[in-house]
Write a structure and sequence with these properties.
alpha+beta; 4-stranded antiparallel beta sheet
Length: 360
């Protein structure tokens, strides 16, 4: 039933047909006269119209309130020992673009890729970002604030909304002036209206200096789109020259070319310090649709360990965007996870072989 609703709510065509059919059924019930009593027929008409309009209203808002509908654009992907967490972006508004983005959190089993839960994860802004993980709980930062969500039960365990904080902490009963998120420590700096500033751990939900508790931010290797730090004394850069504006090559800090290979619109997307393997995303043409995901070992920069081509993945369905491309990449142990449109792929980090693909 959930899959049927996902399909129905993800297609304007199917949703329009369903609304028309429901409206027609409502009209038939409203004009029907199965009873001899006009009062009874009138009551039936009112109930029928109310029920139909209630169902239509639910269908138009089910993606927002119940996280139903196919995924279309993932904005973040994080993995821990047991679970995969993804955030996708949806739009709630009219056809003229009047409305706001909202975000949903998907939780999957890491080994099988089985969907465990999905829930509303905040709204406003262009990106929903997972800033912290602990067991089956992810903390998602959006334009409206920070939400902690238990992925296995879809339960909200933390909110940084002022109303919630004033109810739970005596220090904020006087009111809250401002809230700042400190990404380096995964802490909230909250200034009450009495002028006092407090640090709050979203995971432990305790106030105090950092030494009083442990935060659990998402662990990431140190790399950027333009360079990777293989060790303290070795960085690899991916940059282009003025003569080859769109083609990038691998360089040392001293501008020494490390490999004859060139990458069209290429940039680093992931790095495994343990395996000393990094991934480069680049494209076949400047249209930036048909991507290539290439893996390199720091021991051999002359040729990739493997290449994954978008056109070989055979990804896409009735609900997919024709020009969708790779949006998120995450390396965990000997696995690499990446998203395309509403699909999540899991591959072997050493070989590049696809282990499974899931449509979410």
């Amino acid at each position: 039933m959930v899959q049927i609703l996902d399909a129905l709510l993800s297609s304007i065509l199917l949703l329009t047909i369903a609304i028309l059919l429901l409206s027609f059924a409502g009209i038939l019930l409203a004009v029907a006269r199965p009873f001899r009593s006009e009062i009874a027929n009138g009551i039936l008409s009112v109930i029928s119209i109310g029920f139909v309009f209630g169902i239509i209203f639910w269908m138009l808002n089910a993606r927002y309130y119940h996280a139903l509908g196919k995924a279309s654009e993932f904005t973040d992907l994080k993995v821990n020992q047991k679970y995969i967490f993804l955030v996708d972006k949806q739009f709630q508004g009219d056809s003229d673009g009047m409305g706001d983005n909202f975000f949903r959190l998907f939780t999957l089993d890491r080994l099988s890729g089985e969907l465990i839960g999905r829930s509303f994860a905040g709204e406003y802004g262009e990106e929903g970002t997972i800033v912290m993980l602990h067991e089956d709980t992810a903390w998602v930062k959006t334009g409206k604030g920070l939400l902690g969500i238990k992925g296995t039960s879809n339960q909200v365990v933390f909110s940084d909304q002022k109303k919630a904080l004033t109810l739970h902490f005596e220090e904020f009963k006087i009111g809250i002036d401002k809230i700042n998120y400190l990404p380096g420590d995964s802490l909230l700096s909250i200034t009450a209206k009495d002028g006092r500033t407090h640090l709050l751990s979203p995971r432990t939900q305790k106030l105090g200096p950092p030494k009083d508790y442990e935060s659990n931010p998402v662990a990431t290797a140190f790399f950027a789109k333009e360079f990777i730090e293989l060790s303290k004394n070795q960085k690899v850069y991916l940059s282009s020259s003025s003569r080859k504006q769109f083609l990038s090559s691998l360089y040392t800090a001293e501008a020494k070319v490390l490999s004859p290979l060139e990458f069209l619109e290429g940039y680093f997307v992931a790095f495994s310090p343990e395996k000393q393997i990094f991934l480069i995303l680049h494209y076949e043409t400047t249209d930036k649709i048909d991507f290539i995901l290439s893996a390199f070992s720091s021991q051999n920069l002359q040729k990739p360990l493997w290449d994954i081509y978008r056109k070989d993945l055979q990804i896409g369905d009735f609900f997919s965007k024709s020009e969708s491309t790779l949006t998120c990449v995450q390396v965990y142990e000997n696995e690499v996870y990446f998203t395309i449109d509403g699909f999540l792929c899991k591959a072997d980090l050493q070989k590049g072989t696809i282990i499974w693909k899931k449509r979410l």
